[in-house]
Amino acid sequence: MSSPAERMVSRMREYFKRKSPAPASDSEKGNFVRKESGASSVSGSLLNRLSRKPSSLNGMDEKGVVSAVGITEDPNVQWRKHMEDGHAILTNFRGSRKEAFFGVYDGHGGRAAVESVQKCLHKFFADELSSQVVDISPEQAFAEAYRKADAVLLENRCLYVGTTSVTCYVSLDENDRKHLHVANVGDARAVLCRDGKGLRLSYDHKASDDLEQKRVCEDGGQIVGRRVNGVLSVSRALGDHAMKKVVLGSPYTSHEVLTSEDPFVILACDGLWDVMSDDDACTVVLETAANNEAKELDVQLASRVLVQLALKRGSTDNVSVMVIKF
Q1: pTM for this structure?
Q2: Helices of type H across the chain
Q3: 98 Cβ contact list (under 8 Å, min separation 6)
Q4: 198 to 29, 189, 250, 291: CA distances (angstroms)
Q5: Is 50 exceeded by the pLDDT of residue 246?
Q6: Which CATH fold topology does 4-325 show?
């Protein structure tokens, strides 16, 4: 018997056969139902096929550092009047097929911060990597790029407007090993699927986190009602300069050398993660592949399934999900 996730994937595939899909950056809407139950298992042989077989989805070819990228965004009009999310996709980063940059940004207080960050953050990061600093690491480049992006928001007077951010940089080294570098502020999250399980590569900077609570209080702020100074649920963000003393813009960073056990990574805002665990999200994506005839991962369909599941499970925020296949 098929699992609930598989049945939902099947219904969605039938729907999209009847209706041409919208561009990836458009809002996606629909009435797709998933009954709640435990996630089903996915075989190791499927994981091996996903890691070996390249895809040509979204106009990408087999020579790139990533095989395919899917992005779905939904404003969640039942709960939100405005769409404050943004994203960045650069698959030929710095003019090289061996590099790619991706980002998902979740704004608050308006779109001013999101629109600035999605235009400038990757440019600052590229500038740092291309600088004359000897042996600068991607982690150092991320830290400086986030600092510069935050400075732009200060110049733009983003005092009560801000955005969370999760970004990743994928590259090939001289030995053709694939590297994944992640940086984030706030509660936008990166989850790598490793051997069928979710491996979190980011850190949720939230007012409810014990370490962040301690830091905020030491820096002169306070936690009121699980919010920084009674206002923000996140303890780090770009922008929000009226509270910059305690709401830092310095990112958490991580680095993984990718292997055949790592078929994809999910970047998403808290509209997904508030209602779905890391493992569950990875299983849902894998089941979209298990349920199609070619047993290959359709990243655009996978991102749509995750967004629709988040809405069905009662997410009350804008929902943006990016699935990147290696």
Answers
A1: 0.83
A2: 4-18, 44-52, 112-129, 138-155, 210-218, 270-273, 278-290, 299-312
A3: 65, 171, 172
A4: 27, 12, 25, 20
A5: yes
A6: Phosphatase 2c; domain 1 (3.60.40)
